């Protein structure tokens, strides 16, 4: 099992450009999450999904869109990148709800917006 | 808003010593989890403790939970260089919430 994978690992964008981050999991997990991690801020939830075809907003959803067309994939889109979106992005998945389940994290995508 | 807040923010100890990190949170929880993050990597789950549990062990890890004080502690005994990492607590916050809220983490450095 590969677990949770993320592509790309690194990316540099110019302000206003768009891009999509891909997260894939091969554990048949229902729940998937996108976080951003900034120095001194810990992890903040951007969007999450409780199943194929569903998405929900997290703590910091502005400027991002997501899609979960297939159970194993969760895409995070930036339509018009801004320097404030420079961060490390982590995807995670869990089998079901968070009450008893652990989250499995991908290796992260380091994004720089100039 | 921050639910879990770790203390201290940074901790440096000698190999073989014990390391204790604390986490405080604000709202009622169903469970609290601890994760480790090695530099440049994703988070790895260490241990989950439920709100009706007071202490839990896993290898060299010992977690305590005091719901009356809304706090938890993570103890790593006989530390090793490989334990150098950041440690985060995460809570489920509001009842029924389908998301975890992470603290800012404690950066632990084990000196050889």
Description:
- The complex is a heterodimer of chains A (114) and B (112).
- Chain A has strands at 4-7, 10-13, 19-25, 31-38, 42-49, 56-57, 65-67, 73-78, 87-94, 104-105, 109-113.
- Chain A is mainly β and 114 residues long.
- In chain A, the strands form 2 sheets. In chain A, strands 2, 4, 5, 6, 9, 10 and 11 form a 7-stranded mixed β-sheet that branches. In chain A, strands 1-3-8-7 form a 4-stranded antiparallel β-sheet, with no helix packed on it.
- Helices cover 0% and strands 54% of the residues of chain B.
- Chain B has no helices and 11 strands.
- The radius of gyration of chain B is 13 Å and the shape is globular.
- The termini of chain B are far apart.
- Classes of the chains: A mainly beta (114), B mainly beta (112).
- Chain A binds chain B through residues 4, 31, 33, 35, 40-45, 48, 50, 56, 58-59, 90, 92, 97-100, 102-108, and chain B through 2, 30-31, 33, 35, 40-45, 48, 88, 92, 97-105.
The radius of gyration of chain A is 13 Å
Beta-strand content estimate of chain B? over 45%
Strand percentage of chain A: over 45%
Extended strand count of chain B: 11
Structural class by sheet pairing and helices of chain B: mainly beta
Structural class of chain A: mainly beta
**CA gyration radius of chain B, whole angstroms:** 13 Å
Helix % of chain B is: under 10%
Helix/strand order of chain A, N-terminal first: EEEEEEEEEEE
3D shape of chain B: globular
The number of helical segments of chain B is 0
Oligomer: heterodimer
Q: How is the biggest beta sheet of chain A arranged?
A: 7 strands, mixed
Shape of chain A: globular
Mean pLDDT of chain A: 93
Ends apart, CA distance between termini of chain B: 37 Å
**Which residues of chain A form runs of ≥5 with pLDDT under 50?**
none
**Most extensive interface:** A-B, 28 and 23 residues
> Helix amount of chain A, in percent?
under 10%
Short description:
The complex is a heterodimer of chains A (114) and B (112). Chain A has 114 residues and is mainly β.
